Amino acid sequence: MRADMNLFKNLALLTAGLLFAVQAYAGVKIENWQTSTGADVYFVENHDLPIIDISVNFAAGSARDTVEKAGLSAITRHMTTTGAAGMSEEEISKRMADIGAILGGEHDMDRAGFKLRTLSKLPEREQALDIYSKIIQQPDFPEAILQREKTRIIANLKESATKPDSISSKAFMKAVYGDHPYGFSSEPETVAAIGRADLLQFYQAYYSANNAVIALIGDMSREQAAEIAERLTAALPKAASAPPLSAVGLPQQAVEQRIEHPASQSHILLGYPGVSRGDPDYFPLYVGNYILGGGGFVSRLTEEVREKRGLVYSVYSYFMPMAVEGPFQIGLQTKKEQGEEALKVVRDTLDGFMQKGVTEAELKAAKQNIIGGFPLRLDSNAKILDYLAVIGFYKLPLTYLDDFNKEVDKVTTAQIKDAFNRRINTDNLVTVIVGTAQ
């Protein structure tokens, strides 16, 4: 009974930590150094709760796949948690649960990441770090589990191939990026081609210390954080840093792809290669996009497509900054018989935005909303951890969080119009429509 109560208490503390805010984001002091093995470390000390959060990110996202074995990076990241240093998948899960620790992760085009949340008390912290470090440094890649996971993934891919949102997303990325790795997508045949030897080779090539970024926040000293970072990287593979990704080619003409589907609604995506992390145009594009389609009900696209004409429930736009130019995308869903009208309104709204720019009133309102809402992005250790990882992985300034609102406030209407017209060629937009009118 006492053990159960202790576990409940541990879980309550860890859950509370998800909602606990660092008191003032402007006061977040980020410390940065390198481990003896070459990993970059970003650390924020905060003793308000007895918890620590850690993430380790590698330049091992899907952009490191080949077209023949697309999906290898994601499977490699996932499989590290299914057996390590002789521990089974069940044992890893049970030992983490015993101390209330939370193991997580992430995977995108650029990164493969591992997260840990644990109490900072010595017994729990040591057990959590022992398991976490073995997962990162000594994965077993069990053959039987690999076959099980491949079967599951292939089944999911076959199911996704029937869903209009998955179909449109894959087709859009392929149309925007062509032969660039950002356009690769997992398919049943590419997953079927992946073997355990591929996982081992990928791990050895991309999970090295000098290809890693460690972020830590919570109840530990600078010295303790340094010890943890050394421990997490001591036995990583000795490989070179991942080479830079190839440049993204821009579409040379407009592309419109129509894919039949029996769904009652058309799924429509429009876009173009957008912006990379750290790009000087990021803030004008970010603020401008808030006005165009990123601000929800206060955006132009919502006003024109939904409020005035009732053609959609929601319409959005965003920039996804990546290591190289991530996508600029506009998306909506509408009844098939309204698809052409909705698409025309979206294009007209974008054209008007590009030609006339934004008003001073729109800019003022956007700045107020963005700046006013920024503290909510940093209202927990977990959110700050994610920012630390991004700052470290993309080599952004250590003052990025302090500078964010200042950069937003400096944006002018002229900068927005100039940045959009230099970066987005509306004559060469990519358009994908899944579920065309009958």
Summarize the entry for a quick read.
By secondary structure, this protein is of the alpha+beta class. Helices cover 46% and strands 17% of the residues. Strand 4 and strand 5 form a beta hairpin.
CATH fold annotation of the largest domain: Cytochrome Bc1 Complex, Chain A, domain 1
Overall geometry: globular
Q: Determine the structural class based on helices, strands and strand pairing.
A: alpha+beta
The CATH class of the largest domain is identified as: Alpha Beta
In total, how many beta strands? Answer: 13
Radius of gyration computed on alpha carbons: 23 Å
**Number of helical segments with 4 or more residues:** 16
Span from first to last CA?
63 Å
Fraction in helix: 40-55%
Biggest sheet record: 6 strands, mixed
Spatial sequence of strands, sheet with the most strands? 1-2-8-3-7-6
Q: Explain this structure to me?
A:
The chain has 438 residues and is α+β, with helices and mostly antiparallel strands. It folds into two domains: 2-233, Metalloenzyme, LuxS/M16 peptidase-like (Cytochrome Bc1 Complex, Chain A, domain 1, 2-Layer Sandwich), CATH 3.30.830.10; 255-434, Cytochrome Bc1 Complex, Chain A, domain 1 (2-Layer Sandwich), CATH 3.30.830.10. The protein contains 16 helices and 13 strands. It has helices at residues 2-19, 72-79, 89-98, 122-137, 143-160, 164-177, 188-192, 196-206, 222-233, 282-294, 300-307, 339-356, 360-373, 381-393, 400-410, 413-423; strands spanning 31-34, 40-45, 51-58, 83-84, 87-88, 102-107, 112-119, 212-218, 255-259, 265-273, 315-319, 327-335, 430-434. Strands 1-2-8-3-7-6 form a six-stranded mixed sheet, sandwiched between helices. A hairpin with a 4-residue loop joins strand 6 (102-107) and strand 7 (112-119). Helix 2 crosses helix 8 and helix 11 runs antiparallel to helix 12 (339-356). The protein is globular, with a radius of gyration of 23 Å. The termini are far apart. The model is unreliable at 1-5 and 16-26 (pLDDT under 50).
